[in-house]
């Protein structure tokens, strides 16, 4: 959000009668904060910037909002309705012709097309490109935590599941999303990085092997902390309470930011994560002891079989 888009934001702020404005940026956009604040101050607004880490729309700077009329959250679409928050997704464009690289890997069957919020504005162009080349591309409407058509999050793969297709084309960077899609849907998944043009078929087998090892390591724990996030879009206390009754060793622990140092200081032999699902999957090597997903804890406690393994999602 720079000068080209400032006028629309100013219009929204004035329609709300806002005078004090809080700004929140994820890590990749924080360096734009000073310029954005300057532009808004020049238009007569009192501006404050949240300097805390931000990992998504589930991680709103509500403490900063307490001293402002409106919070402007950059980079993400909303995961739930917030009356005093304006969400401004960050758009990253590319030449949709890069999808040509994925076509040799797509079999002749209906294909779900999904992407992340940064590229979701290109869904219509990508859909048209694939259909012109004979690919039956299907894009599910957005809902809930993924309100945009064809959007997926690291904690929600609903649009991939609701397409009803037997294979999925994920367009975006990184492998966590396509691995999550594979485990969530059971479908064949092709991942295309639109910025490098690299394409590959992705499965969840390697992740499952790592997670099996973590579960087995957790069997020796003498104490278990069930983490509940205090962040607005991650708070799952009801789930934590349901899990806590599965083991006499389990105690609920509330945290804002889940860090290796804090887990080490608390001293539990194992943790169960009900906060951002990616913490257990992405950051296990950083944590001092096993950190399980809710479904993995159920496997540990014997209420779920390994054959029923499911990746953690926030509906």
Write structural notes for this entry.
The protein has helices at about 5-15, 35-40, 60-65, 125-130, 160, 175-185, 205-220, 235-245, 260-265, 280-285, 295-300; strands spanning about 20-25, 45-50, 70-75, 85-90, 110-115, 135-140, 165-170, 190, 200, 225-230, 250-255, 270-275, 290. The model has no long low-confidence stretch (mean pLDDT about 95). Strand 12 (about 270-275), helix 10 and strand 13 form a beta-alpha-beta unit. The chain is flat, with a radius of gyration of 21 Å. The chain is an alpha/beta fold. It folds into three domains: about 5-90, 3-Layer(aba) Sandwich (Rossmann fold); about 95-205, Diphthamide synthesis DPH1/DPH2 domain 2 (Rossmann fold), CATH 3.40.50; about 205-310, Rossmann fold (3-Layer(aba) Sandwich), CATH 3.40.50.11860. The strands form three sheets. The protein has a five-stranded mixed beta sheet, sandwiched between helices.
Topology, element by element:
Blueprint: H1 3-15, E1 20-24, H2 33-42, E2 46-49, H3 62-65, E3 70-74, E4 85-88, E5 111-115, H4 123-132, E6 137-138, H5 158-162, E7 167-171, H6 176-185, E8 188-192, E9 199-202, H7 205-218, E10 224-229, H8 237-244, E11 250-255, H9 260-266, E12 270-273, H10 278-283, E13 291-292, H11 294-301
Parallel strand pairs: 1-2, 1-3, 3-4, 5-6, 5-7, 7-8, 10-11, 10-12, 12-13
Antiparallel strand pairs: 8-9
Helix pairs in contact: 7-11
């Amino acid at each position: 959000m720079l000068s080209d888009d400032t006028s629309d934001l100013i219009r929204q702020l004035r329609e709300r009668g806002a005078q004090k404005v809080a700004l929140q940026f994820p890590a990749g956009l924080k360096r734009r904060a000073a310029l954005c604040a300057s532009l808004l101050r020049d238009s007569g607004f009192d501006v404050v910037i949240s300097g805390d880490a931000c990992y998504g729309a589930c991680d709103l700077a509500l403490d900063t909002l307490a001293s402002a009329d409106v919070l402007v959250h950059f980079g993400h679409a909303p995961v739930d309705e917030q009356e005093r928050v304006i969400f401004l997704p960050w758009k990253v464009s590319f030449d949709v012709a890069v999808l040509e690289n994925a076509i040799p890997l797509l079999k002749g069957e209906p294909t779900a097309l999904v992407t992340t919020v940064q590229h979701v504005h290109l869904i219509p162009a990508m859909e048209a490109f694939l259909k012109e080349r004979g690919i039956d591309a299907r894009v599910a409407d957005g809902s809930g935590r993924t309100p945009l058509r064809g959007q997926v999050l690291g904690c929600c793969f609903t649009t991939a599941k609701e397409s009803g297709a037997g294979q999925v084309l994920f367009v975006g960077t990184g492998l966590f999303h396509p691995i999550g899609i594979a485990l969530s849907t059971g479908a064949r998944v092709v991942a295309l990085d639109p910025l490098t043009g690299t394409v590959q078929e992705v499965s969840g087998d390697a992740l499952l092997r790592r997670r099996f090892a973590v579960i087995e390591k957790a069997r020796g724990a003498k104490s278990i902390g069930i983490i509940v996030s205090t962040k607005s879009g991650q708070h799952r206390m009801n789930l934590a309470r349901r899990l806590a009754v599965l083991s006499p060793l389990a105690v609920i622990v509330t945290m804002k930011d889940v860090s290796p140092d804090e887990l080490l200081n608390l001293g539990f032999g194992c943790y169960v994560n009900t906060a951002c699902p990616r913490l257990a999957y992405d950051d296990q090597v950083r944590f001092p002891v096993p950190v399980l997903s809710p479904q993995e804890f159920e496997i540990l406690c014997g209420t779920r079989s390994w054959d029923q393994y499911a990746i953690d999602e926030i509906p």
